[in-house]
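Sanity check. The docking grid for magnesium ion depends on where the pocket ends up, so I'm generating a full predicted complex first rather than guessing from homology. Inputs follow.
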Amino acid sequence: MSKLVITDLHVTVDTEDGPKEILKGVTLTIKEGETHAIMGPNGSGKSTLAYSIAGHPKYTITGGSVTLDGQDVLSLSVDERARAGLFLAMQYPVEVPGVSVSNFLRTAKTAIDGEAPKLRTWVKDVNAALEQLNLDPSFGTRNVNEGFSGGEKKRHEIAQLELLDPQVAVLDETDSGLDIDALKIVSEGVNRFRQREGKGVLLITHYTRILRYIEPDYVHVFVDGKVAESGGRELADALEAEGYDKYLKANA
Ligand code: ADP
Ligand code: MG
Ligand code: MG
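Predicted complex below; grid placement will be based on this.
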């Protein structure tokens, strides 16, 4: 069972001119087994939504709520959010100096499960995950994000997703900077995750391209800090054909 409920979420970010409201009342429910795509123009607040759910300190929640299976997510620390079953892959992942991919994954898994994974099965699982993502086993010995190409960063994100096995995954611009082969590999990883029992996915993207490989159950158009329209997959096709113009005009 996993259900992420976002209700009338308002968020400000600190700027040089003082706090600026970015999220202006976001309401969205992701039930178990559902994949939702959030699509919107640049600057509409999509990443702010992801960062707010993740608990990034730069963003201040001024109203509304986020719950996972009824538990108040916003009162949890970043670590507690992960332990509660949330996974947030970020648009701009940070370098972790001096920590290898293998150690990073094992430390994260241990923190989330509350106990270290059994070494033998863990090594097997890690190698299988890397192989499926077309990453060389030696990738595990590299330092996290140090000198990673765009594609390696994204594939590392999906390796985390598959190994950490959260309940709900928020993926921000997982498709950005990927060539078509890498996009397919990454999408297949997300689809493997979706096939597991009861998983929820919030897929945030600017382009419709990835939705050819990861078919969402619901599509939401995000404009000026809130959901402007919700629908099924056909909404993504309409966006592909018509772009965001009509929403931006309606909003001007
Ligand atoms: P999107 O991901 O949809 O492109 P963002 O959430 O990144 O949009 O940004 C939404 C708006 O909030 C933009 O106008 C952006 O300039 C502003 N913003 C976001 N984060 C910050 C920040 N840390 N400092 C200042 N402005 C920010
Ligand atoms: Mg409101
Ligand atoms: Mg963004």
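Relevant for the grid: The mean pLDDT is 92.
Also worth noting: The domain at 4-251 is CATH 3.40.50.300 (Rossmann fold).
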